[in-house]
Design brief:
It is a single chain. The chain has a seven-stranded mixed beta sheet with strand order 1-3-2-4-5-6-7, with helices on both faces. It has helices at about 40-50, 70-85, 95-105, 105-130, 150-160, 190-210, 215-220, 225-230, 240-250, 265-270, 300-315; strands at about 10, 25, 50-55, 140-145, 170-175, 255-260, 275-280. Helix 1 (about 40-50) packs across helix 11 (about 300-315), helix 4 crosses helix 5 (about 150-160) and helix 7 (about 215-220) packs across helix 8 (about 225-230). With about 325 residues, the chain is of the alpha/beta class. The chain is globular and about 55 Å long. Helices cover about 45% and strands about 10% of the residues.
Length: about 325
């Protein structure tokens, strides 16, 4: 029920005019809280003077059961996964709920993404038709998308049903590569068993299921969002369509990524977004924690890195 009926936060600048379009912020995979993104949304709203909608992906953040974030409730599942896994499984309290779900039913990566995509389209239509309480009719939002949120946004921009993002911009941070070039193996994202399962499933099994299932076959041949999803799985999937579509919208898209990102490698992003900007920081960072906190000696340096990235987003979206 919480996946269907949910609330989402919106940063609204004090001087916000109702006819000013918002920025939709899309988060990364396996997030259970908005805490990491509150400074991101605040900075974007403050500096662009536009509202920022923090929109949760299906089965994430407040769209997931509380037990998925409760170590005590997850202890039994974690013990089972560690017992049956290899030495370097990366199983943890943080990733066990998602790892269990994807290992058991890898189709969920597609179905939850599909729901997220159509939820976004519903939101865009609400904004366009004047049905959102904070915005005027005809509102066209832009996007700030991080990690798997960038993957979702790319599918939306590829599909562009009824021209719904014709006037929208997309800023991607640490995202933009094809699925086959991502490495979700992480204590913060998913464990080794889950990653290997979905990787094999989408690169070797799913295409067979589509061919053998008339309903799926029809869906993937007719539905633009499904086609967009398949485009972003592997290089040889609808390559000419993907390349021509991204070429057509290249002025609407900007990507900034990090040199040492091991989850979504920078140079793999450039294979999809050739002019993606690659930057590096003077401190230890990861894809999951690009702006680490807790070390007082690095506070100023980390703040400067945060300012660098978000000024690029602000300049593009302002």
């Amino acid at each position: 029920d919480e996946n269907v009926h949910f609330r989402y936060p919106v940063f609204v600048p004090k001087k916000e005019a109702k006819d000013r379009s918002p920025i939709i912020l899309l988060h990364g995979l396996n997030e259970r809280s908005w805490l990491k993104y509150l400074p991101w949304g605040y900075r974007l709203a403050e500096q662009t003077q536009r509202a920022v909608i923090l929109y949760p992906i299906a089965y994430h953040i407040n769209r997931s059961p509380e037990r998925w974030s409760n170590p005590r409730a997850l202890q039994e599942s974690l013990n089972k996964r560690k017992k049956s896994a290899s030495v370097d499984s990366r199983s943890s309290f943080a990733n066990v709920a998602l790892s269990d779900r994807l290992s058991n039913h890898p189709i969920r990566f597609f179905t939850s993404g599909r729901q997220s995509g159509y939820d976004l389209i519903h939101l865009l239509k609400e904004l366009e038709e004047g049905l959102h309480p904070l915005f005027a009719k005809g509102t066209k939002p832009d996007f700030f998308a991080y990690s798997i949120g960038a993957f979702l946004a790319q599918i939306l921009f590829l599909a562009n049903p009824q021209g719904i993002v014709n006037q929208s911009k997309l800023f991607m941070f640490c995202g933009g590569a094809l699925f086959e070039n991502m490495n979700g193996l992480s204590k913060m994202i998913m464990d080794k068993e889950a990653f290997e399962r979905i990787y094999h499933y989408y690169l070797h099994e799913f295409n067979v299921e589509i061919k053998n299932n008339p309903t799926l076959q029809n869906y993937f041949s007719q539905d633009l969002m499904a086609k967009g999803f398949w485009c972003m799985i592997a290089d040889n999937h609808f390559k000419s369509f993907r390349d021509s579509r991204f070429e057509a919208i290249k002025s609407q898209v900007k990507a900034v990524t990090l040199l040492k990102d091991q989850v979504i490698p920078a140079f793999k992003i450039r294979e999809v977004v050739p002019d993606a900007e690659i930057i590096d920081f003077e401190f230890q960072y990861t894809h999951e924690t690009p702006f680490p906190i807790g070390n007082e000696n690095l506070t100023s340096t980390v703040n400067n890195a945060f300012d660098l990235v978000f000024q690029k987003a602000i300049d593009f979206l302002k």
